[in-house]
Amino acid sequence: MTDSTTLFDEMNDRSREVFRRVVEGYLDTGGPVGSRTLTRSLSEKVSAATIRNVMQDLEYMGLLDSPHVSAGRIPTQMGLRMFVDGLLEVGDLDTGDRQKIDATMGDTGGDVGSMLDRVSTALSGVTHGASLVLAPKHEAPIKHIEFVSLAHDRALVVLVFADGHVENRLFTPPVGQTPSSLREAANFLNAVAEGRTLSELQSAVRKEIQARRQEIDTLARDMVESGLALWADGEEQPERLIVRGRSNLLGAEEDEEDLDRIRTLFDDLERKRDIADFLQLAEEGDGVRIFIGSENKLFSLSGSSLVVSPYMNADRKIVGAVGVIGPKRLNYGRIVPIVDYTAQLVGKLLSDRG
């Protein structure tokens, strides 16, 4: 299949202008653009019949579609992709938008989660879409670990971090665990945990288990390994996905089928099934990325678009992402600088916090 770049190169100036005007009109109004409308805006004075011929050629190329007989044209997903890649004019961040985003950062003394909640709310308010913020997992060094038995098949691990953050996580302990094996496992972990993050601890403990298998009894070793399995479990994602502005999308769609698709999308998001996929989208490229419709599995059900950018910590490591989801006729030229600025701002604030 011919890609959009090749198609763009094959188009003449008139075809490119007609295509650009149709897409811009669609992004502005959400409706099809007709030939008579274009005759009033094209730089070259041509007849409506000539424009219709050009639009038919663009439709044959797969760039435009005709939603109704004798109606105007709207861009296809491939047409939108070609427009975004080759014709989109991204402006500077609007001063008013910048001020609204900056205003949410006035209080930077709270925890990171609260800050990112405010960022997500601000993004939704400024863009009138739905915002997505993927918060980073907690990577502070561990200060202390303790296991607490709750029942024969339930136990709690208490993680105390050097920055004062505390997490309690439930898990299923090995069969036959005793208070003694719990204490021994905790002592073993605390001996190697100091100064290490959870990610670093997993690697260190595996090495220690290999080196000191004879120094801990079987039940204690099983306890340690169960704890590691909990921390590495794909269903217990340490990252947190913050979703705001759901009503902005639900209120913007009148078609019941589209409403059902968007509800499905947000139900999936709120169950956090695709958090890892969301972060991967951002990690696959530098800067802002745009995904239209079915270009990624995360949002293919809704027929929506996603504008997403990763943010980095002080070590220039990608630790999370911010994004905006909206209809395919999103105002990309305005949304891209908003997402870009917000991602850079979040990265700077995280770096300043150390």
Structure overview:
The protein is of the alpha+beta class and 354 residues long. The strands form 3 sheets. A 5-stranded antiparallel β-sheet has the order 7-3-10-9-8, with helices on both faces. It is 49% helix and 18% strand. It contains 14 helices and 10 strands. The chain is elongated. The protein folds into 3 domains: 83 residues, Orthogonal Bundle (Arc Repressor Mutant, subunit A); 156 residues, Beta-Lactamase; 91 residues, Enolase-like, N-terminal domain (Enolase-like, domain 1, 2-Layer Sandwich).
Total tally of structural domains: 3
Low-confidence stretches: 228-238
Mean pLDDT: 77
Number of strands: 10
Summarize the structure.
With 354 residues, this protein is of the alpha+beta class.
Helix-strand blueprint:
Layout (H helix, E strand, L loop, with lengths): L3 H7 L2 H17 L5 H5 L8 H13 L3 E2 L8 E2 L1 H10 L8 H9 L8 H16 L2 E6 L6 E10 L2 E8 L4 E6 L7 H15 L4 H14 L6 H15 L7 E5 L1 H7 L3 H15 L4 H9 L5 E4 L11 E9 L5 E10 L4 H21 L2
Antiparallel strand pairs: 1-2, 3-7, 3-10, 4-5, 5-6, 8-9, 9-10
Protein name: Heat-inducible transcription repressor HrcA
Function: Negative regulator of class I heat shock genes (grpE-dnaK-dnaJ and groELS operons). Prevents heat-shock induction of these operons.
Family: Belongs to the HrcA family.
Task: Note the main attributes of this structure.
single chain; 354 residues; alpha+beta; Arc Repressor Mutant, subunit A; Beta-Lactamase; Enolase-like, domain 1; five-stranded antiparallel sheet; three-stranded antiparallel sheet; 14 helices; transcription
